[in-house]
Design a protein that fits this description.
This protein is an all-alpha fold. It has one domain. The chain is built from 4 helices and no strands. It is elongated. The structure holds protoporphyrin IX containing FE (HEM). Protoporphyrin IX containing FE binds near residues 14 and 138.
């Protein structure tokens, strides 16, 4: 029973962290940036910088939660992936590899090595694929167990 509660909690943490991280980036790219274009240059820069600074904290806490809960979920499902064979291993391997690239791009943005607009667009596309891979993995595992 205890293990089940932890497994549900970790899955919950993984999904909520993904919602915060991806939702924040989507809101910034699709709503905040176009809206600040209506403001004067100086004001627009200040609003964008303050919002970005506030979001960085949320983003990195979400990434830490994604890594922690993701590794836990991976260990828990490792036997299922083995049973799924090459497809299971390839899907989880690709999912984690894309997640690492996403974190690296986010880091590049945080330290000012990659332009914010590039970080937002690259990471929104990566996130879309990572979420799809998570959904496929879950479906295949449930299907293979039934
Ligand atoms: C090191 C980073 C990560 C690891 C190790 C990891 C690992 C996992 C694992 C093992 C699962 C379970 C799949 C299954 O049910 O078989 C999963 C599901 C999922 N992951 Fe990740 N993940 C990581 C990063 C991310 C990121 C960055 C996102 C979002 C952009 C994300 C979004 C999801 C979603 C939406 C699911 C499906 C949840 C569900 O239906 O239960 N993950 N992840």
């Amino acid at each position: 029973m205890g293990e089940t509660i932890v497994a549900i909690a970790m899955r919950y943490v993984h999904i909520v962290a993904a919602i915060f991280a991806v939702g924040g980036v989507a809101f910034t790219a699709l709503c905040l940036v176009p809206t600040t274009r209506l403001l004067e240059d100086g004001v627009a820069r200040t609003v964008t910088e303050v919002a970005a600074r506030r979001f960085q904290r949320v983003l990195w806490i979400s990434i830490a939660a994604l890594v922690g809960s993701g590794v836990y979920n991976w260990i828990l499902a490792a036997e299922d992936y083995r049973q799924l064979g090459a497809v299971g291993q390839a899907l989880i391997g690709t999912k984690v590899l894309l997640a690492v690239i996403l974190f690296a791009v986010a880091w590049g943005g945080t330290v000012g090595r990659i332009r914010p607009r590039v970080v937002q667009m690259v990471n929104l596309h990566l996130a879309a694929v990572i979420i799809l891979l998570g959904a496929i993995l879950r479906h295949l595992r449930l299907e293979s167990l039934s």
